[in-house]
Amino acid sequence: MKYTFKNLSEAPSKGAAVYFARQNNQEEALLDAQGKLADEATDRQLSRAIKAADFKAAAASTLELIAPHGLKLDAIIIVGLGKVTELNEDALTDIGANAFGAAQKISERVNFVVGHESIEVDPILMGAALRGYKWDKYQTVKKVTKGRANEIHVYSDNQAADKAAWDSKQHVAEGVLYARDLINEPSNELNPETYAQRLREFSKIGIEVELLGEKELTKLGFGSLLSVGQGSAYESHVVVMQYNGGDKNDAPIALVGKGVTFDTGGISIKPSAGMGDMKGDMGGSAAVVGAIRALAARKAKVNVVCVVGLVENMPSSTATKPGDVVTSLSGQTIENLNTDAEGRLVLADILWYTQERFNPKVMLNAATLTGAIVVALGVHYGGFFTNDETLVAKMKTAGDQVGEPIWQMPLHKFYDKKIDTPNADVKNMADRWGGAIYAAQFLQRFVNDTPWVHVDLAGTIMGADKTPTNQGWASAYGVRLFERFISEYEKD
Ligand code: BES
Ligand code: MN
Ligand code: ZN
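Above: the input record for the complex with BES. Below: its predicted structure, written as tokens.
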């Protein structure tokens, strides 16, 4: 996508133009000064359309006028701001997304004419950039002919500031799109080997990348993670990425991600229906990878380390079997009673490794860990668990701001008892109820006193309902949440 920033005095003359209308207390749509000029130029087509369609300018609602009279534009899109007092970043993102969605169906060139001073441009562009995402890599005949806008022009009173803000925020949007590509990629293309190799390219944006293959992992003692990948033809990998934009002696913030490139369930094999979705079981890793990529690309003043565990969970004669006991990197032994509860075995080792090696000031992990979190929260909230109550408000605020909300779930020692077993130090499942909590409680056994947050994104990162900012399968929910949370730690 190409972006240009112009002054309001130059009205757009090509493509589709977006004008903003707010809603007053009588629920009437009111065009801004720029919209009024367009209304005059079209012999009142805008106000007539508003009336004819009973358009009330509700937040993120749109009204389309094709080939407006008297102008060379392909279309005018009027987008509702709702009540201006209710506008916030999340709302503006949806407004930008829906306006762009309507405009890109008609034209390859989308113009935003931002007449309201109170409107921030970067959330609008964030919405547009996310809405513009397409996954059509494997369509040999591209089915979508419209919907390929490749130019966005912003007209505002603040062009220099708007450009500067977007120059930075654009990297965050790209982090999301990068993560969506990873999640959408089928598992025959994205396996633990090809995924690890892909991440090498991050060295180009100032991230130090280290690949640990099975030889190194065996030597280091990643017995839990390796037991998940041992049935696969692909070699398991751990990838360690470091970005140091902060003070030299400042402890990093750690991001840890579950990267199961395909989860068949292993010997405890899953039913066939819907199994294809399990190509997205590396979503947690994609979310943290997208976040560190965004932070590095926008040169955030913060130190971040990102560790992902890349494995494929397959049934085979070499696969782990229910009842097997493995020794984790922490030294704790784990009885594997269900090989489909594999994500926690991957995270156990990389959480331990990350805290021992980097001593981070905060450690966040992301995972598509349980179906139970989807039962609990549906597809609109991610679930999070933490051992540090001071992080609760920070995480919730970051999620609410960017429109990736998360809801706190409990950790408690009474849940802990049910993952005890006579056969090892811990087992990887409890009983039928509260499955997301038992998974989190298991992870906590591999976290010492590092402030830690586990985010279960199984319901939100893929296969969720369509939203203004995501019309496809992979949302990459979490990238913006983590990026925003970490940005609060940037030094001034
Ligand atoms: N990858 C799945 C969880 C999942 C389910 C992610 C649906 C996305 C959508 C995970 O590895 C898994 O299979 N969990 C089991 C755990 C159970 C066997 C204790 C589950 O949730 O059923
Ligand atoms: Mn599983
Ligand atoms: Zn899984």
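Notes for the reader.
The pocket of manganese (II) ion (ligand 2) is lined by residues 263, 265, 340, 342 (CB under 6 Å).
Residues 159-184 form the longest helix (26 residues).
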